[in-house]
Structures are given as C-alpha cells and as structure tokens.
Write a structure and sequence with these properties.
With 106 residues, the protein is of the alpha/beta class. The protein has a domain of 73 residues: NAD(P)-binding Rossmann-like Domain (Rossmann fold). Helices cover 15% and strands 29% of the residues. It has a 4-stranded parallel β-sheet with strand order 7-4-3-8, covered by helices on one side. Strand 1 and strand 2 form a beta hairpin. The termini are far apart.
Length: 106
C-alpha cells in the first residue's frame, strides 16, 4: 500500500508499501523536546524504522529549551548538537515530531 501524506510544509510525500519512508528522498527530521524521556524514545524509534535521513546534522535536528541548546546529544545516528527550538529553525525539517506540549502564553 502506498499513498501520499501531507507534510507540515504543504508538500506531499509518497510512502513506500514496505516501509514508512518516502521512496528515494533523504529526509530531515526534527524532534522537539529532545532532551526529555519522550524525546529520547522518539529518536530511538526513528532509528528502528529505517527512514532515509540526510547525512550528518542535516538528517536529524534535535530541538530543546534555551538552557539545553548547544549540548552534544548521543543518538543512534551519532552525536548531534541540540538547538534551541524556534519556528524558523524547524522550517528546514520535512517532519517535526513534538515530544511535548508547546503553549504560547504571550
């Protein structure tokens, strides 16, 4: 079974029938709240589903609070430097997975 899925950027991605990943398209995936337990579990799950991620930092982006930004986080994909979450920062990701509730009280 294959079909199109609408991404957060208004683009469709074709999914292969035997996997979750789009066919022949290297992805950039972001995880918001990456230093928490849920964020760590999301990264672990991503390593098991065999998504075709771009090489290096471009493939996996880990978003955190300002306090945790700049930390090097060990992942199944190698060490990744955490970035402070921002709307513009996650705009470079085809898929963004939030591990926490994001509330704007301003």
């Amino acid at each position: 079974m294959s079909g199109a899925v609408e991404s957060g950027l208004g683009r469709s991605v074709m999914l292969e029938k035997d996997g979750l990943g789009p066919s022949n398209v290297p992805l950039t995936v972001g995880v918001v709240g990456a230093t928490g337990k849920v964020g760590e579990e999301i990264v672990l799950c991503l390593s098991k589903v065999n998504l075709p991620l771009k090489e290096g930092r471009a493939g996996l982006r880990l978003f955190t609070s300002k306090r945790s930004a700049g930390r090097s986080l060990s992942t199944p994909f190698g060490d990744v430097t955490a970035e402070e979450f921002s709307v513009s920062g996650n705009g470079h990701c085809l898929i963004v997975l939030p591990s926490c509730l994001i509330v704007n009280l301003g």
